[in-house]
Amino acid sequence: MKRIGDLKILVVEDDALNRDLICTLLKGFGDITEAKSLDEASALIGSLRFDLAFVDLDLNGKPDGFKIAKLTKEKSIYTVILSAQKDQSSIKKAFEFSDCDNYLFKPANISMVKEVMGHFDSQNAFLKTNKVIRSKFTTSSPKLTDTLEVVKSIYSAQSPIYIFGETGTGKQVLAELIHELNFGDMKKFYHLNCSAISDSIIESELFGHMKGAFTGADSRKEGLFEKANGGTLFLDEIGTMSPLMQNKIITAIESKKFKPVGSTQEIESHFRLIAATSSNLSDEVQAGKFRQDLFFRINGVHLILPSLKDRKEDLELLIEKISQEHLSQRALYLNKDVLKILKAYDWPGNVRELKNLINSWLDRGISKPEIKEIPTHIINNENIFSKTKYRFITKKQIQQIKEMGLKEFVRELELEAIETLYKENRKKLKPTARALKVHTDKVYWYLDKNSGEQYELIQ
Q: What's the whole-number average pLDDT of the chain?
């Protein structure tokens, strides 16, 4: 986004005195280009890039300003009508036909210009914010949209932010988005996954250390608290920190002052803190695993990223975006049967898991995946990451039992198992019974009573 002072401004006015006045008032806001007629203005709009345009409605006795304003808006130029005409018909036409951003009455003055520039700056910032957010998050989900609306209102503040969301929901992406909206690029963004390293390494990574502070400290190391000065520090999975480390970082987070390991010299650093967890920190506090006072210090703004199972309406949008971003530039088509299975799945790995699946298809040159190319656990809607007390039964089987009843489910399960192993053993009765660890009579009885096929009694 351009700063005030670097703007490209077009002034369209046929009266020399009024044109000079407007240009004088705009001096210091950017480079000014002048035009006196529809033809001049049209040529300039077609050949140059402008950020703002100040347009008089009456040019050489003709209402050409409406046409010019329409041209500037079509080029996404912030357009201000500056006119002596105060009748409602002109005002209505300016907003409805030309879609102008502002309509101001002559003569122009400095307070009027400053007000326009303030409105332009805020609108430009709003448009830029929306564009950046859309580039990071593809969604029509009310839950995620609500979270992103909060981001729009707090990204420029300095309050600490706490992001809660399951693995793969995009916590780091959201942290990077907040930083980018605030600072404009990814400089001074530092990320540490607290669950991936030990306490001793976390301490050195965050605080830094002096040369000789411990064995192997051959030189001074600048820690992330120091590096992030004037930027953002993102602590992912902060809930996995030990109570000892929680105690050590609380002062640095509160006062923005700390001492590198092995130093007596205090360093001051002002950074924006963003913390994230995939577990509920409130529960961790209740269980005595996370310090309450540290929780209050990191929980300035609480953002929740919904899981993919709670935003299934985004599934097709995400699939389209992921496939379009794949390096192969290969088109992906999912038929209704494949889509039905993907929509029924709960996606415990969230967007990351979906991305891995789509990329795996495209990496293998699969543009139109069939059901056989969907992993079995997705077809069965099984969470391969969940810890369950059940050793054998699946989520899909639980649903089948509810629909069929236990007795019918067990009968169908036994029949399918017998038929499968019977065929695997080339329709031989005894090998099938041995594989099933049952008597041959049971195998024969099931096949005879429950199957429509005629089975030979091959021993």
A: 89
Residue 194 near residue 238 (C-beta atoms within 8 A)? yes
Task: Determine how many CB atoms are found less than 10 A away from the CB of residue 85.
Answer: 19
Are 415 and 450 in contact by the 8 Å Cβ rule? The answer is yes
Q: Pick from 239, 237, 209: which is nearest to 222 by CA? A: 209
Q: What is the DSSP track for 348-415?
A: TTHHHHHHHHHHHHHHTT-SS--GGGS-HHHHTT--TT---S-SS--HHHHHHHHHH-HHHHHHHHHH
Beta strands 221-222 and 208-209 are antiparallel
d(CA 434, CA 437): 5
Cα angle 95, 3, 230; round to 5: 135
Q: Is 380 in contact with 396 (CB distance < 8 Å)?
A: yes
Distance CA 271, CA 233 (A): 7
At 192, the amino acid letter reads L
Which residues make Cβ contacts (< 8 Å) with residue 183, sequence separation at least 6?
189, 231, 232
Q: What token pair was written down for 225?
A: 């608290």
Segment (H or E) for 117: helix 110-136
The label of the residue with tokens 């929680």 reads 246
Least confident interval from 31-40, 198-207, 353-362, 419-428: 419-428
Residue with tokens 């400089």: 187
**pLDDT-based confidence at residue 39 (cuts at 50, 70, 90):** very high
Percentage with pLDDT > 70 across the chain: 94
pLDDT at 87: 85
* Cβ 29 vs Cβ 53: under 8 Å: no
**Per-residue pLDDT tens digits for 431-453:** 888 888 888 888 888 777 765 55
Could you tell me if 274 and 178 are in contact, meaning their C-beta atoms sit under 8 angstroms apart?
Answer: yes
Give me 402's structure tokens. 């509810």
**DSSP secondary-structure letter at 314?**
G
Evaluate the omega torsion of the peptide bond into residue 107 and state whether it is cis, within 30 degrees of 0: yes
For residue 232 the two structure tokens come to 């953002």
Largest interatomic CA distance in the chain? 111
What is the per-residue pLDDT for 390?
A: 59
What does the pLDDT look like over 318-350, one tens digit per residue? Answer: 999 999 999 988 899 999 999 999 999 999 999
Cβ neighbours of residue 239 under 8 Å, at least 6 residues apart?
A: 277, 279, 281, 284, 289, 290
Query: Cα(348)–Cα(278) distance, rounded to whole angstroms?
Result: 12
Q: How far is CA 69 from each of CA 9, 10, 24, 43, 51, rounded to the nearest angstrom?
A: 13, 11, 22, 14, 13
Phi/psi of residue 221, nearest 5 degrees = -115, 130
Q: What are phi and psi of 397, to 5 degrees?
A: -65, -40
163 neighbors 299 (Cβ within 8 angstroms) = no
Sequence-ordered strand ranges (E) for 294-355: 301-304
Are the beta carbons of 9 and 45 closer than 8 angstroms?
A: no
